[in-house]
Amino acid sequence: MINNRCVVGVEWLRQNYIDCRDRIKGRLHEFKTIAIERDEERALCELIFCLLTPQSKAKLCWRAVESICKKYNTLQCSRSEILGELYGVRFRYKKSIYVYEAIRRFIDNGEFRIIERLADFNSAESARDWLVTNIKGLGYKEASHFLRNIGMGDDIAILDRHILRNLMRYGVIDSIPTYLSKKRYIDIEDKMRLFSKNIGIPMSHLDLLFWYIETSELFK
């Protein structure tokens, strides 16, 4: 149930959703084409992006991804070459190792195959669990972000600071946690899912809507 004090805010949220719904649908369709077309190259770019984003600016991270993918044969680039493109990315030394190891984790007969591997799972949640366990540098937030960005995670939450801040604003959570264990993450995700259902805005749309409200654009 939506807290009474949030009713006016929810109506404002719904109106904003109506205003940008088509753009949100278009953005999500772009993501879905990655999985539909089994576009492993684009999936690789999204994986690198999600490994770089923790505590770093999204646009800066995406520029680094584009630079890596344009300059090098990504499947063969060295850790030092990756590192050289991460200027401005926080914890770039550690993240360059994460990226290097993640790329090699999914090379099969000279080709990158992560969509093929994830297609074996029967739910986004089980795919996410596997990613968190097997890819160093991916927590639940980053794994959720990656799955959404390749069109394989419609009903899971990307609980970054802007999402948590908005969930608190609308009374879904009482405070922003300083640390998200798996149990706490799933608990908040379930609350967000219920909130999404109650206000009639799909989970994947709600994330981009919150992003749009805060930044006036739909990025990643």
Question: What descriptors fit this protein?
Answer:
two-stranded antiparallel ribbon, 220 residues, single chain, 2 domains, Endonuclease III, domain 1, Endonuclease Iii, domain 2
The main sheet comes to: 2 strands, antiparallel
Q: What does the average pLDDT come to? A: 90
How many separate domains make up the residues?
Answer: 2
Taken in chain order, the helices and strands follow as: HHHHHEEHHHHHH
What's the total count of β strands? 2
Fold and architecture overview:
This protein is mostly helical. It folds into two domains: 90 residues, Helix-hairpin-Helix base-excision DNA repair enzymes (C-terminal) (Endonuclease Iii, domain 2, Orthogonal Bundle), CATH 1.10.1670; 112 residues, Hypothetical protein, domain 2 (Endonuclease III, domain 1), CATH 1.10.340. It has eleven helices and two strands, in the order αααααββαααααα. Helix 1 packs across helix 11 and helix 2 runs antiparallel to helix 5. The longest helix has 30 residues. It starts with 6 loop residues before the first helix and ends in a 5-residue tail after the last helix. The N terminus is likely disordered.
Helix/strand layout:
Blueprint: H1 7-36, H2 40-52, H3 58-71, H4 79-83, H5 92-105, E1 107-108, E2 111-112, H6 115-118, H7 124-134, H8 140-149, H9 161-169, H10 182-199, H11 203-215
Antiparallel strand pairs: 1-2
Helix pairs in contact: 1-11, 2-3, 2-5, 2-8, 7-8
